[in-house]
Amino acid sequence: xxxxxxxxxxxxxxxxxxxxxxxxxxxxxxxxxxxxxxxxxxxxxxxxxxxxxxxxxxxxxxxxxxxxxxxxxxxxxxxxxxxxxxxxxxxxxxxxxxxxxxxxxxxxxxxxxxxxxxxxxxxxxxxxxxxxxxxxxxxxxxxxxxxxxxxxxxxxxxxxxxxxxxxxxxxxxxxxxxxxxxxx
Length: 184
What we know:
Blueprint: H1 8-12, H2 16-19, H3 28-181
């Protein structure tokens, strides 16, 4: 069956049978044409609504695409920041490893220093002990020397007294010899 095309101009104007005062039910072809015209009007109105909705959807799609571009820009910015953070994290990790290595060297040096200090302290302690022993020995020798000096003084005093007594005795004897010999 061939398609019946009804133009918008024809639908807009009043059908002839209405102008002539006929009723729609009198002519079945006119009734069909009227129904077709009404359907075409509804279809055209529906198409207008679809066009309006399509325009709205296209505007929404444009907004979504703009939002997507903003999102993409932000995502790129975030990726850049993540790359920078990753680079910084790598630097921090490298610094941390260097600090750990430095700390290990410091601990080794501290242990070495502790060993060296203990050895040196042992040597100093040995030296102090030797000096103390020397002082003790020297003090004992000094005490013995003082005792010897004191003994020697006592002997010298005793000897001095004996010499003084002997010297007095010699003078007495000399005086007697002079008296006997008559020397002045």
